[in-house]
Structure formats: structure tokens, C-alpha cells
Amino acid sequence: MSMQKYSIIGLCTGQMYLVGAVYHIYKSYESNGLLGPSRPINLAIICSSIYVTTMAHWHNMKPSGIAKTVDMIVVVTSALFVSFKESHKWNPIYGGREIWNSVLLMGGVTYVVNAVILSVPVLLPIDDERLQLATTVAHTFWLHVMTNVVAIWCVWCESS
After folding, report:
1. Entry pTM
2. Contacts of 157 (CB under 8 A, 6+ apart)
3. What are the DSSP calls for 66-107, one per residue?
4. CA pair distance 111, 135, nearest whole angstrom
């Protein structure tokens, strides 16, 4: 079973990091125009960095390698930065931090389950492609799509 057949899922859902980067740049300059960002562009830098590493990893998926390692380092570092540095700025009325933490938990769980499912055929003669597809979709949904949706929503809520 080739991992390449699932790379299109990661490449498509990974576009959410580009959407997030563009949105956070827009929100940073929205009120100040050319005078500079009105709020830190940390989230735009994070989304841009993850976009580059995610595209590199999912373009040529391998069980291990430099692209996967760099992607994992950037993702984990970024998740920790947002969790401990950025999320406290979000309006508590909307429960942004709780939603963010829940999405990260689901993303972590689906990542671990996906890693186990993808390694099982190597260890045991079990090869259920539907299960592998489902865990890949769940993994990319929670880590690529929902982290960006929640971050965009929480930044949007700051201004409302």
C-alpha cells in the first residue's frame, strides 16, 4: 500500500494554512493600513511556516525523512506557541481557548491513531485501506482544517 495515494488529501486540506496566513495578514493590517500591523503577525508567520512544511511533507510522503521531521517540529512548536502565547488574547466569551484545546486534543488523538494504523501493515499482515483512508481524513480534518478554522474564528471574535 503506497502512502502516495493519500498525499492528495494532505495537499488539499493543507491549503487551509494558506487561507489562515492570508486572513491573519489581512487582520493584522486591517485597521492600520500601510502604517504597519495593528496586532502581531505571529499567526500569519505560523500559518505560512506550517504551509511550507506541510506541502513539502505531503507532496512526497514518506514514513520518515527530513520533510516529515521538519513538518512535525514546526507543527508542534506552533501548536505550543499558539496554546501558551496567542490563545490567551482570544475573547473568553466565545470559549476560544477551550475550543482550541479540544481541536488540538482531537488532532493529537487522530494523529496517533493514524500513525498506528499506517504502521500496522508493516508489523502485521493487516491492510484495511478503508481504515487507513478514514484515519488520514480524520487526521487532516482536525489538524489542517479545524486548527485554522478555530484560529480564524477566534481572531475574528476579537474584533466583535
Report:
1. 0.84
2. 90, 91, 93, 94, 96
3. HHHHHHHHHHHHHHHHIIIIIGGGS-GGGTHHHHHHHHHHHH
4. 8
